[in-house]
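User: Second chain of the day. Same drill as before.
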Amino acid sequence: MNHRVHTFAPVLPVIAVIALLGLPLTPGEGGAGPADAVSGLVVLYCAIRLLRDRRRPLTPTAMLVMGLPVLGLSIAAMDASSPGAGLGGLGRYLQIFVLVPAAVVLLIRDRRDFRVLAWSFVALAVWQGAIGVKQYVTATGASYQGEDIRAVGTFGPTDVMGMATVVSFGLICALALALGRNDARQRTVATACAFALLLPLALSFSRGAWIATAATCALLLALAGLRRALKVAAAVTAAAVVLVGGFGVGTSMLQERIDSITQVTDAPDQSVIDRYTMWAAATAMWREHPLTGVGLKGFPEHRDGNASLALSSGSDTEGAGAAFLKQPLLSPHNMYLLVLSEQGLLGLLTLAGSWLALLVCALRGLFRVHRAQLPSLDCALVSTGLLIWQLVDFAYADIGGPSTVLTAVVFGLAAWWSLVGATQEQRPTAETPVPVLTEGALIQ
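Assistant: Same format as last time:
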C-alpha cells in the first residue's frame, strides 16, 4: 500500500481536489468551496516541487498556449469597476484557466498517472450519481415543477448544474476508457460505469449537459471506429428501452424536458427567455466596448441597463435540504458571451484561442495514436472528449459554483495530452516514464 501511495504521490493532491467535490455542502452555499482551497495548495505544492528539483517546467510553446489568457485577463482587470472586483475576477480566471491546469500538467508524469485521474472522475460521478438517483426516488432532490425530484447530488439547488457536470465528465471518461486498448477487465468496468451514469444524467433534467454529452459521445464513438460506434449505439438503444419501459424513467416531466429542447424558438419557457435576454444584454455590452469589454465582474452591474423587460427577477431554487431562495441572474449562462461582454474581443481571442490550440493538438495526437495503433488511445479519447464537452457546454453555461474547480482539472488533463502525452507516443511499449520530452512537453 505504501509503495502504491508513493507511486502516485505527485497526483494525490489533484485526486484530493476531485474527492472533496463528493462532500456535502451547506444548504444554500455557493461560490468557492473546500476543493477550491485545496486547488490553491496544489499550485503551491507544484511550485515547491519545481524549486526543489530545479526543473525547467514548460517549453516556450506550452507556456505560450497556457499563458495566452493572461493578456486579456490583465487588461480586463484594469478596466473593472473597482480594484476589488478586478483582482477577484482575475484571481478566479487565473485559477480555473491558467494556474491549476498548469499545475496538473506538471504533476502528471505518464499515462499511468493520467488514467488514475480519469478513474477518479468516474468514481466521483458514480458517487454523485448514486446520491442523485436516491434524491429522485425519495423525492428529496431540488424542486422541479413543484416536486423535489431533480437530481443534484451534494451540490444543492443553487448549483443544479454541478451534479450534471460531474456525471457528464465521469461518463465521458468511462466511455473513453472502454474504447481504449486497456485490459478486458478495465474496459468491462468502464463500460458498466458509462451505462450506469446515463440514469443520473437523465434525472438531472439538464438540457445543456444532455446536448454536450450526446455530441461528445457521438464524436468519440466515430473517432474510435464505425463498427464499434454501431455496437455501442445498439447497446445504448437497448439500455434506453430498459430504463424507459422497465423502470419507468421516462416520466412525463422528463419527456417534456426533452421536447423543450426543440421548442427553444417556437414556445420557449421562462428559463430560455431569460437566457436569450441575457445573451442580448451581453452582446449589447460588447458593442459598447468592443475591444476590452466592460471589465471583469462587470456583467451584473451593466445587465439592467442593457436587458429588456422580458428578463425575470431571478430563478426560484428550493429543495435538497435548502429553503426557498430567489437566485439572481448575474451572468449570461454562456461562457463565450460572458468573456466577450467583460473582456471584449481581446479577451475572447486570447482565452478561446488557448482552448482552440489545445483542441487542435489533442485531435492531432488522437489521430496519430489511432493510425499507429498505439496504447494510449484511451488517454487521447479522455482528454479530447472532456475538452470537447466543456467547449460545447460553454455555449449554455459559464463558470460559477463549487463544481467549477473541476473545469480547471479538465483543462489540465486536456493540456497534458495536447502538450506532453501526445509527444511521448513513438511506439507501443510498456508504461515507462520518458526522461526528456520533445517540443511542447515537460522536461522531466
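Residues 85 and 129 are 35 Å apart (CA to CA).

User: Great, on to the next one.
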